[in-house]
Design a protein that fits this description.
Shape: globular
Number of domains: 1
Strand content: under 5%
Distance between the termini: 59 Å
Radius of gyration: 22 Å
Order of helices and strands: HHHHHHHHHHHH
Helix content: over 70%
Number of strands: 0
Mean pLDDT: 75
Largest sheet: none
Number of helices: 12
Low-confidence stretches: 1-22
């Protein structure tokens, strides 16, 4: 019998071909993992915003001052970082810039409602209501003709009773105005995600983040100045939470859009619900709030919904020619 032999060169060609064939799948897995980690990091940072914001308001600052300062400082911080380390991220195509402008204005108005509601309700209860944004996001994505998987819908079904159980706090009455303001903030936050998702098909996350934050600043900054600027509280009780809020805003938006870019808006939003647990735990530790047994049942349901992400099949993130946001498209990018 003759033994077949292969030359080292032939083996290397075969190995290279095998690597090339396997590389698309492995690259998709790496990008998906990157998106999942970014979405979870964004949730952790977002969970801190309610506590820092509540602390700043309790120090005597108005909600408008809090949202204006944290937005402008975060935008300036990110702009300077990009300008110093990689100014190429400042390039964006015209339709993408308009998309970021629209997303920033939407999220900016939503932020005003969020911090106004935070002045009326507890941080934990407020963020529980805010966590309904995946339901609003499902509506916006459906209007934009984005595919929604069955497992995603099932996870969303689990979220609804979990949020209901989490809001059952010691039988106290809920502030209807604060509740309404927080639900509006949730809907507007959900709306800005699919708008930015369209831009993220062709732009990196830092680019989308900086222009969205700057656009938010063009809404909340002038409103703060026109409202009649009162003297801000001094000392650490105010500036400590404001600086903390600035930092977590900067990091949460950057990781949020990185997650949206690689795993899509719906998956990022569902993973982002873990911010609810972060907000509640920090509210326990820093603000002295407590959970009832009913709320713990809701937390368990929410955790199950989050853990089911490991069974989700990756959805290709690509430009879709139809939908109400199809105008956000680049032509002949350099």
């Amino acid at each position: 019998m003759s033994k077949s032999t292969s030359s080292p060169g032939h083996l290397s060609v075969l190995e290279t071909s095998a690597n090339v064939a396997a590389s698309p799948t492995s690259q998709v897995k790496r990008l998906r993992a990157k998106g999942v980690y970014a979405a979870l990091a964004s949730a952790i940072f977002m969970g801190m915003t309610a506590v820092f914001g509540k602390q700043a308001i309790l120090s005597g600052a108005s909600p408008l001052a809090v949202v204006a300062l944290r937005t402008l400082l975060a935008a300036i911080l990110l702009f300077c970082a990009i300008l110093i380390y990689n100014h190429r991220y400042l390039y964006i195509y015209p339709a993408g810039f308009l998309g970021c402008l629209l997303a920033g204005w939407t999220n900016g108005i939503g932020s005003l409602f969020y911090y106004s509601a935070l002045a009326r309700v507890d941080a934990s209860v407020g963020h529980l209501l805010y966590s309904l944004y995946p339901i609003f996001l499902l509506l916006w994505l459906s209007l934009d003709r984005q595919p929604i998987g069955r497992l995603t819908l099932f996870r969303l079904v689990l979220v609804i009773p979990s949020v209901y159980l989490l809001t059952q706090a010691h039988g106290g009455q809920v502030d209807l105005i604060g509740t309404g303001q927080m639900l509006i903030a949730s809907a507007l936050y959900a709306l800005h995600i699919p708008i930015n998702q369209r831009v993220l098909y062709e732009m990196p996350a830092p680019t989308v983040t900086v222009y969205t934050l700057l656009s938010m600043g063009t809404i909340v900054g002038p409103l703060y100045l026109l409202s009649g600027v009162d003297s801000l509280p001094g000392g650490y009780p105010f500036w400590g939470p404001i600086l903390g809020l600035t930092l977590v805003t900067f990091l949460s938006r950057l990781t949020l859009f990185l997650g949206v870019k690689h795993i899509g808006g719906m998956q990022t939003a569902l993973l982002g619900l873990s911010e609810l647990l972060v907000a509640v735990l920090l509210s326990f530790q820093w603000l002295g709030e407590r959970f009832s047994s009913t709320q713990w049942m809701g937390a368990i349901l929410l955790a199950v919904s989050l853990l089911l992400v490991i069974f989700e099949k990756p959805t290709p993130q690509k430009v879709r020619p139809t939908g109400w946001l199809s105008w956000i498209r680049a032509h002949n990018l350099p």
